[in-house]
Design goal:
Length: about 160
């Protein structure tokens, strides 16, 4: 079980990653994978615009980096922290990577697959179900920072 303080710290790192996505015009979503000791194994930010790769979501890139660092695809005893609720593809990647814990800072009412639209990670038909720490279980300040990062991005996009 991850405590609120550790979850907030992990989401703080994910927010920093998300802010870097702004440089390439990507939706500012950031993710970080930590091992059981809190060591960062991988980070990622949305890079779909930067790379033209439709699968270049923050979560997928962070999981790939963590698997490379670990030397295997099984990320047991790891935590994935991401600023936005994972989509269907990313929720599937969470399950397949065997991450033990998922922390996210903002819900996605349009495409969220961790309770908002679907609930892939808790589907009893799957062979792995990570512990989930949603926005209402992290500090209000951190959850607001995650949501605000996205709100500012989309507000600026609408102005253009």
């Amino acid at each position: 079980m991850i405590d609120r303080e550790a979850a907030d710290a992990a989401l703080g790192l994910a927010i920093e990653e998300g802010e870097r996505a702004l440089e390439t015009g990507d939706v500012p979503v950031g993710a970080v994978v930590l091992d059981a000791d809190g060591t960062v194994l991988g980070t990622g930010r949305n890079e779909r615009e930067a790379t033209g790769d439709p699968t270049a979501h923050a979560e997928v890139l962070a999981l790939r980096a963590a698997a490379r660092a670990r030397g295997e695809w099984r990320l047991t005893d790891c935590t994935l922290a991401v600023t936005l609720e994972p989509c269907l593809m990313c929720a599937g990647a969470v399950v397949l990577s065997r991450v033990d814990r998922l922390v996210f800072g903002a819900r996605d009412a349009k495409a969220g697959a961790v309770g908002s639209v679907w609930d892939v990670v808790r589907d009893p038909r799957l062979n792995h179900r990570p512990e989930v720490l949603p926005p209402d279980l992290v500090s209000e300040d951190v959850a607001e920072r995650c949501a605000e990062l996205l709100s500012r991005f989309f507000a600026r996009r609408r102005i253009r």
